[in-house]
Amino acid sequence: MFDILRVNGVEFKIDPETNFWGTGDSSGLQELYTKLRPKLRSEMRKFRFGSDIILLYVNATDRCNASCPYCYLPSRVKNRGRNMSFEELSAVAEKASNFFNGRSIKGSIIFHGSEPLLNKENLFRVIEEYEEELFFGIQTNGLLLSREDAQFIREHNVNIGISLDSPVQEINDSLRGEGHYEKVLNALEWFKGYRGLNVVTTVTTRNLDHLSLMVRFLRERGVSLCLMNPVRGTQKEALDLRPHPLRLAEKFIDAVEEAIQLTKKGERMVVADFANILLGIIAPSARVMMCDISPCGGGRRFFSITADGNAYPCGEFIGMEEFSGGNIFHDTIEEIISSRCFRNVTRRSVEEIAECQTCLYRNMCGAPCPAEIYSTEGTMFSKSYYCEFYKKVAEHAFKVIYREDVEHVINRDALREVYNFGS
What we know:
Elements: E1 3-7, E2 10-15, E3 20-22, H1 26-49, E4 55-58, H2 75-78, H3 86-101, E5 108-111, H4 120-130, E6 135-140, H5 147-155, E7 159-163, H6 169-176, H7 180-190, E8 197-203, H8 211-220, E9 225-230, H9 245-264, E10 270-271, H10 272-282, E11 302-305, E12 311-312, H11 333-337, H12 340-346, H13 362-365, H14 370-377, H15 387-402
Parallel strand pairs: 4-5, 4-11, 5-6, 6-7, 7-8, 8-9, 9-10
Antiparallel strand pairs: 1-2, 2-3, 11-12
């Protein structure tokens, strides 16, 4: 039997176990689904529990040139001040290349926070040396980006994520540091039209009311993809900056609608977080971002490496030594991902969370983030602080489907038809 979601007077009949859904005659839909269910259950289980590392997040330095009040990294980590040498970064790249080659894929390394461009010379050398074997990305606050850096990044097809929290300079710089706003605006000019660019906004109580404005602001500067990530309460300093989940949902949905309207006018703009939840409904196994599924991607699709080589299932776990699965300089990738602490994360599922067991959206949301929940609750098996936010956003995704606006969020040409149920 299906669970029922009513949207705009229409009944969506949903099986939360597989995310199969439909409208119309219940008996016909049930007959069809009875035939498909075994295969769909198998596909969903493989998608959820299969382990296939495709990406390494590498913190090439512990250091940072900003002091964002919501940073997920503990101060004691950033204060170590360690940089990876070129030889160490090369060793990581070599180990990653060999691992991915053994699986016949071209995997990725993303240089991540603290601030990777504090070690840019070594980063760029590694990119030049391994660009045939690996895809590369850089997540940066943008403070150290130069025009020459932007040219290098474009020439070598490196994906670049730049942080910007508000289109209002005063608000942005209160979060990111004085001068950050102007630096990023310069960078956006250098990257205008570059398909490898995305802008990351960390949503807090301070910038919550600016999300729709941010969408327009970025589109006017040639940006077509942004992420609007709710701040995580992994560190105590961030807890007071978490927006109320329902208020967050309201403002986030407004931003999504702004992006859809711009796209309809020919100025394509996508809020990637929403697009991924929409994908979880129309093409569940096509999802790329792995926070809104359980088990999440941490330790299963990717893991994070700190400047001293220690490995964690995700950057949000850095500093929680009980989740350190080994050291990339001393252990193999296979040993790291099979460690007990990694398995504790990769086996976490919504079925083990009381509030999630019967939830309609459990395989569209995944009760993120296990690191945040562990930090605040002492267990990974409690519902997310943002539970009501995810419910509202998933419900809105069904409204977008009902309105036939999916094509204004997701490029259908990038999807492959697997099932065709006719009219």
